[in-house]
Specification:
- The complex is a heterotrimer of chains A (561), B (151) and C (440).
- Chain A is of the alpha/beta class and 561 residues long.
- Chain A is 31% helix and 25% strand.
- Chain A is built from 15 helices and 30 strands.
- Chain A has a five-stranded parallel sheet with strand order 10-7-6-14-25. In chain A, strands 16-23-17-18-19 form a five-stranded parallel sheet. In chain A, strands 2-1-3-4 form a four-stranded parallel sheet, sandwiched between helices.
- In chain A, β1, α1 and β2 form a beta-alpha-beta unit.
- By secondary structure, chain B is α/β, with parallel strands linked by helices.
- Chain B has a single domain, classed as Rossmann fold.
- In chain B, 38% of the residues lie in helices and 15% in strands.
- Chain B has four helices and four strands; from the N terminus they run βαβαβαβα.
- A four-stranded parallel sheet of chain B has the order 2-1-3-4, sandwiched between helices.
- In chain B, β3, α3 and β4 form a beta-alpha-beta unit.
- The two termini of chain B are 29 Å apart.
- Chain C has 440 residues and is an alpha/beta fold.
- Chain C folds into three domains: 185 residues, FAD/NAD(P)-binding domain (3-Layer(bba) Sandwich); 60 residues, no CATH class; 160 residues, FAD/NAD(P)-binding domain, CATH 3.50.50.
- Chain C is built from eleven helices and 24 strands.
- In chain C, β19 and β20 form a beta hairpin.
- In chain C, 57% of the residues are buried.
- Classes of the chains: A alpha/beta (561), B alpha/beta (151), C alpha/beta (440).
- At the A-C interface, α2, α3, α6, α10 and α12 of A face α1, β4, α2, α8 and α10 of C.
């Protein structure tokens, strides 16, 4: 066996690590470790300069193992694996150590201790690296078909885009009609176009496209598999059906909060939500002389701290509609802040003021009061800017309530193994740079299932999700990370514990020498959890990249501190 | 083995096994949010908490690790469906056994932390390290260096 | 085949994301960028809200992934001169400006920069310090190749044989090439994606705020450079007059935004980035307290309200509703004095601070109007790209086959720009798959 030669690369990450951890000291300690042939530090290891230096050092010092001590492997490990591969080193001979999120950032008031900890973490990385073996990735084919869950504007837009790119699409909708929430709306902001004019052609295009199969009304019974090979069982009518898809897009939308018990809703017949108002606006509106629209009803409160982003625009839109229909009516909007970012929304807000709609700012500690006997008659509000109480006559009170997570989110998150955030919306892989992807490969999210969004944003995200889904489907294959389990058949007793333990059915017993049954792992189906390894009685099972030997060595390092 | 006093330089020694999908991500979020914690713990990343072997934990105590945290996804949210169910069962059993060996069961803690629970990671680690500090070092006389395991 | 080639104009985060998606889908991508490096405005930020992720830490891997992809052909330090044609067959002429450095030979060692004697205001650091005539725009620049600025370089401005040329002397790779000339190339592509981003609005005309006269009044983007580790002060928040650490900071929102005299629109990200900047100041120095003067607090994104709440609870950030009337200066200390009405209390007040930060309007990039004209796409009255079907096809411009994404369409933050960029890529894919079907 050739000599193990480890290279250690410690990153300053600007001052994110270097401002707390004494990086040169970490490098010094690393240099003195057994099998470490080279150690260096870089200001930004992930920059072109840092990566070039890494690759140059691999070649110059004939390194055959690499330890990078920097930020979190969850974002940067693939980048460094590729860099190693490009320098001629098998990509699995890299160990990534986190000394930023797990060290400098959480011990920033104790730089001495943070440095000691970084030294230990690097040492753990080195001992593990010494025991790493080169690995090859398994490949698997990707079915050129997508499942889109949800037949609203986002789901339909994503489905149509993928179908036009040439893929088969299965669109699943739980209601008996396509269109989602837009079916309930009259006009759409900020363009004021009719909702029907926007949604009906989309529905016709979806239904008419030969590559889109609409399953409606239908429910999701079971989803198993992994990217490229999801087996989806649907409940349709009386029966069940099964489809095989390569990718899945979640476009299940959200619900509008019903303001039960708030501002007289449910008590007074003339206190309505915007959806209820828009239904009336589509038909006919009774003569009213005054309307008061209240924003932030049930949102931006301790129980639900988020801002639902689209309601200010919705209030403006409907205030303008009311004013246009009934020019003599007195229309007022009670708000906390006006969320009209950008160009068109801000212009709309200006027009609304010029049209004579009055705006009053209220503070959350002093919310408006709706007063009346059998109907709402007025709204009393403390105008935060004038510092006095006003009583506004109100023939109609309209409440702007937030979008809240759909009722099926919990169940769907379990079916798909994707997380929800603290508010109950789907949680994307990375808030800034991966807004429509999940950490799980092959599953994507768009529209209000992810977060309150208007139509333009939802459609934009739907196209983005379609782009992400198209990538593996176009290439036709995905490579599985080489972190799979494998069995040493000589040690295996054929007890079958692992077979039962595997959540993915990836292990089966096969006859081996002398007809003896031993465990065999299907490398493509194996997802690398390692549960079978911990369950194995005989020590036959190991996991690539997390072997018992590697972990025990790391524990030993911690114990010697 | 019994609890006896031993030098406390560099103590307590705590290892936290974190699963890639939930608790490691939660630890990352705690870092991103700059939530401060005692530095006396080291994270070992595994893909699933179901990978963590009771044998590792026993050997860790024997080697002189004062506390072991096993952090996984919430029940029902395991990225690998039910890996954490096995974790829960295995370590419930191990905790029972630990009392028989003289190692205080509070030195082993299994908890569930999601990717969005940076604050919970901070609290869990801070409280655990303090508890282990109170318990004092695990008996140094019983320290057994870990033998070279076969590859 | 032309229809497998796409041109992306602008290599900020939106252009980079669109290029990566298109490349991974199998298209060949020309990525044209006017400055010497890809990265755009995000490279100038220290952290990004609401996670306070290190901006360059999450951007650099994307820059490398983009530049390293075999299907992406980078054309940095280049500009689009002319375009004609239609969806499926555009012909574009691109001018490659001479760097006077051979990209193939330059190792990025930086010796020429060290030896260069000429300095000029550094545009990346928004004039807060100076750079050399031979320069790399920022440490993580991609491609890592030096550029020599012909307007500053001693030799290039006079071309006298014995004038300077120190860079050539010290370059061990022999990469300095004075004979480089501008090159015009012709590209044939099936679709074009515009992602030209924004410029900070010049707020000097707003004399009441004293930018340009009161030295301790700076802009939001300048502030980002001050707190960045790669910035002019190495990441230390030092104020311009005396290099002291400011303890009291005022952030003025909507400077040049939401103002019919300058830009009537809302730049959408400033409430959040001011909050972020105030939090960073407190992280740098726990004695710092900040006040943000706002009109409407716009925080409608994921976890944005929690971000604001955390700023108030843990980072000594206060919010005052009122757009200040003016900023005066204490001549002895150089301290800005903010005069404002606290509208919710109907009180006229004055606040003396150590540093005032103007959250300036963000407007479409310089040169974007000319680019739009030569592409034949319509802009709105502010210079943003007009979307003929905003709700149905948000990435479309008024010319079929030319898409747009990111801030050049409308004010928006990074996640929205990234989603739009991927969206534009998907739109390109469907248009090029069946152009006749989709375009009458």
């Amino acid at each position: 066996m050739s000599e193990v030669r480890v290279g250690v690369f410690v990153c300053h990450c600007g001052s994110n690590i270097g401002g707390v951890v004494d990086v040169p000291a970490v490098v010094e300690h690393a240099r003195a470790l057994p099998h470490v042939a080279h150690a260096e530090h870089n200001l930004y290891s992930c920059s072109e300069a840092g990566l070039s230096s890494l690759q140059r050092s691999i070649r110059e010092h004939s390194l055959n193992r690499v330890v990078v001590a920097a930020c979190t492997p969850r974002t940067h490990e693939p980048l460094f694996r590729t860099a190693c591969q490009q320098a001629g080193l098998n990509r699995y001979l890299l160990e990534f150590v986190n000394i930023r999120e797990h060290c400098s950032w959480i011990h920033s008031r104790e730089p001495g201790k943070a440095t000691e900890k970084a030294i230990t973490l690097v040492k753990m990385g080195v001992v593990k690296a010494c025991l790493l073996e080169p690995q090859e990735e398994a490949q698997s084919a990707v079915a050129p078909a997508a499942l889109v869950i949800g037949g609203g504007v986002a789901g339909m837009s994503a489905a149509l885009n993928l179908a036009r790119q040439g893929f088969q699409v299965h669109l699943v909708e739980k209601q008996p009609r396509l269109g989602g929430r837009l079916l309930n709306l009259d006009r759409l902001g900020p363009t004021d176009e009719a909702a029907a004019a926007m949604i009906e052609p989309l529905i016709a295009a979806v239904v008419g496209h030969r590559s889109i199969s609409v399953h409606m009304p239908a429910s999701l019974a079971e989803i198993d598999g992994f990217v490229g090979n999801f087996r989806v069982r649907l409940g349709e009518g009386e029966g069940r059906s099964e489809v095989l898809v390569g990718t899945i897009i979640v476009a299940t939308g959200a619900e509008v909060l019903q303001p039960e018990g708030l501002y007289g809703y449910g008590l007074f017949p003339n206190v309505v939500t915007h959806v209820e108002l828009e239904r009336r606006l589509k038909e006919d509106l009774p003569e009213i002389r005054s309307a008061v629209l209240i924003n932030c009803v049930g949102s931006r409160i301790p129980d639900r701290p988020y801002c639902s982003r689209i309601c200010c625009m919705q209030s403006l839109k409907n205030a303008m509609r009311l004013k246009a229909r009934l020019p003599e009516a007195r229309v007022a909007v009670l708000h906390r802040d006006q969320l009209t970012s950008g160009v068109q929304a801000e212009r709309y807000y200006r027009s609304a003021r010029q049209a004579g709609i009055r705006f009053f700012r209220y503070e959350p500690e002093q919310p408006p009061q709706v007063v009346g006997e059998s109907r709402a008659e007025a709204v009393v509000v403390r105008d935060a800017l004038r510092g006095r109480e006003l009583s506004l006559p109100a023939d109609l009170v309209v409440l702007a309530t937030p979008l809240v997570p759909g009722p099926d989110n919990q169940a769907l998150s379990r079916l798909l193994k994707v997380p929800l955030d603290e508010s109950g919306f789907f949680l994307e892989a990375h808030a800034k740079l991966r807004p429509v992807e999940f950490a799980t490969d092959g599953v994507y999210v768009c529209g209000t299932a992810r977060w309150p969004a208007d139509v333009a944003e939802s459609v934009s995200q739907a196209y983005a999700a379609a782009s992400k889904a198209a990538i593996p489907m176009r290439s036709g294959a995905v490579r599985a990370e080489a972190i799979t389990a494998f069995s040493d058949r000589a040690l295996c007793t054929g007890c079958g514990t692992c077979v039962v333990c595997c959540p993915f059915g990836a292990i089966a017993r096969q006859p081996w020498e002398g007809g003896r049954l031993v465990a065999q792992v299907n490398t493509v189906q194996c997802k690398g959890c390692g549960c079978c390894v911990a369950a194995c009685h005989s020590g036959a099972m190991q996991q690539r990249g997390t072997t018992d030997a590697q972990v025990l060595q790391m524990i030993e390092v911690c114990a010697s501190v | 083995m019994s609890e006896a006093s031993a030098p406390s330089v560099g103590r307590p020694r705590v290892i936290a096994f974190c699963c890639n999908w939930c608790s490691y991500a939660g630890a990352d979020l705690a870092g991103v949010s700059r939530l401060q914690m005692p530095p006396d713990f080291h994270v070992i990343r595994v893909m699933c908490s179901g990978r963590v072997e009771p044998e590792w934990v026993i050997k860790a105590f024997a080697a002189g690790i004062d506390g072991v945290l096993v952090l996984g996804c919430h029940i029902g949210d395991c990225h690998y469906i039910d890996g954490n169910h096995r974790t829960a069962k295995r370590f419930a059993l191990l905790k029972e056994m630990l009392s028989c060996t003289g190692i205080h069961p509070d030195r082993l803690l299994v908890d569930w932390i999601s990717a969005s629970e940076g604050g919970k990671f901070q609290r869990a680690v801070t409280e655990f390290v303090e508890r282990v500090r109170q318990l004092g070092p695990v008996d140094a006389r019983a320290r057994t260096p870990l033998a070279e395991a076969p590859r | 085949m032309t229809d497998q080639w796409v041109l992306v104009i602008g290599a900020g985060i939106a252009g980079i994301q669109a290029s990566i998606d298109l490349a991974q889908m199998g298209f060949q991508v020309y990525l044209v960028e006017r400055t010497p490096s890809i990265g755009g405005r995000m490279a100038q930020l220290d952290k990004t809200f609401p996670t306070n992720d290190c901006a360059i830490c999450i951007l650099a891997p994307k820059m490398i992934e983009c530049a390293g992809h075999e299907n992406v052909h980078l054309l940095t330090y280049s500009e689009v001169l002319h375009a004609d044609g239609r969806l499926g067959e555009f012909r574009v002429r691109v001018r490659r400006k001479p760097r006077y450095v051979d990209e193939g030979r330059c190792t990025g060692c930086g010796e020429c920069v060290a030896k260069c004697p000429r300095r000029v205001a550094d545009e990346f650091n928004l004039g807060l310090n100076r750079r050399k005539a031979a320069y790399l725009p920022f440490p993580q620049a991609v491609p890592r190749v030096m550029t020599i600025d012909p307007e500053t370089c001693l030799f290039l401005t006079k071309r006298e044989k014995n004038r300077c040329r120190l860079c050539e002397e010290v370059c061990q790779a022999g990469a300095i090439d004075w004979d480089q000339r501008e090159e015009v190339i012709e590209l044939e592509v099936g679709a074009i994606v515009l992602a030209t981003g924004f410029d900070p609005y010049d707020v000097s005309p707003l004399k009441e705020y004293g930018f340009g006269t009161i030295r301790n009044v700076i802009t939001g983007l300048q502030y980002e450079r001050l707190v960045s580790a790669s910035g002019p002060t190495g990441g230390e928040l030092l104020r311009p007059t005396d290099g002291k650490h400011p303890r009291r900071i005022a952030f003025i929102q909507c400077v040049g935004s939401r103002d019919v005299n300058y830009n009537a629109f809302c730049s959408s990200v400033c409430c959040m980035f001011a909050t972020k900047e105030a939090m960073l100041a407190h992280e740098h120095d726990r004695e710092v307290s900040s006040t943000i003067f706002y009109t409407d607090l716009r925080a409608g994104g994921k976890r944005f309200q929690e971000f604001i709440a955390r700023a108030q609870a843990e980072y000594q950030v206060s919010y005052v509703r009122g757009r200040p009337g003016c900023i005066a200066e204490d001549p002895e200390t150089g301290n800005p004095i903010v005069r404002y009405e606290e509208t919710t209390a109907r009180a006229l007040r004055e606040m003396e601070v150590d540093l005032a930060v103007l959250c300036q309007a963000l407007v479409p990039r310089r040169g974007h109007q000319e680019l739009a004209a030569l592409l034949g796409i319509e802009l709105d009255e502010h210079g943003f790209v007009r979307a003929p079907n905003l709700l149905g096809n948000p990435a479309d411009t008024t010319v079929p086959g030319i898409l747009a994404c990111g801030y050049c369409i409308r004010p928006q933050d990074i996640p929205e720009s990234v989603a739009q960029a991927s969206g534009a890529a998907a739109r390109v894919a469907e248009l090029l798959a069946a152009p006749a079907e989709l375009v009458p």
